[in-house]
Amino acid sequence: MSMRSSSRRSFVKLLAAAPLLSQIAARDLYAQAASAVGRDLRQNVYSRLGVKTVINCRGTWTYLSGSLEFPEVRQAQVEAAQHFVNMLDLQRAVGRRLAELTGAESRIITSGAALAASGHNRPETRSNYGRRP
């Protein structure tokens, strides 16, 4: 019984230590891979701030910065950053365009999923949303 308990305990300890051990083993792997393709990690805005970049193998997760942008999105941001607009007008216009593209009967633009998930985007609860006094 003691032998079986000991091996089970050792396995659980090893399992608990696996993330730390893998981090130690792979510590320089990213730096080596980056230098192999000619990237200097010191030229990265995150590394200059002391934040370590990661290889995202999970998908679109907010805690992993969401997602990388398509070049078209980056270009639109660069173009949009050259002008000032009324944000409520922009939200309405983009909402109309998204409704056209998706065939949705209703639309609302949020900075995240919180408003959409809260239920405040239903027509009966947003009667004054985005209206100017």
Largest sheet: none
- Which residues form runs of ≥5 with pLDDT under 50? 129-133
Structural category is mainly alpha
Structural domain tally: 2
Figure out the total of helices: 6
Q: Give the overall average pLDDT.
A: 76
Tell me, briefly, the overall form.
flat
Order of helices and strands: HHHHHH
Radius of gyration, taken over Cα atoms and rounded to an integer in Å: 24 Å
> Helicity range of the residues?
40-55%
Strand tally? 0
The separation of the N and C termini measures 76 Å
Sheet-strand content, in percent, reads under 5%
Protein architecture, described:
By secondary structure, the chain is an all-alpha fold. The protein has 2 domains: 59 residues, no CATH class; 48 residues, no CATH class. 51% of the residues lie in helices and 0% in strands. The protein contains 6 helices and no strands. The longest helix is centred in the first third of the chain and has 24 residues.
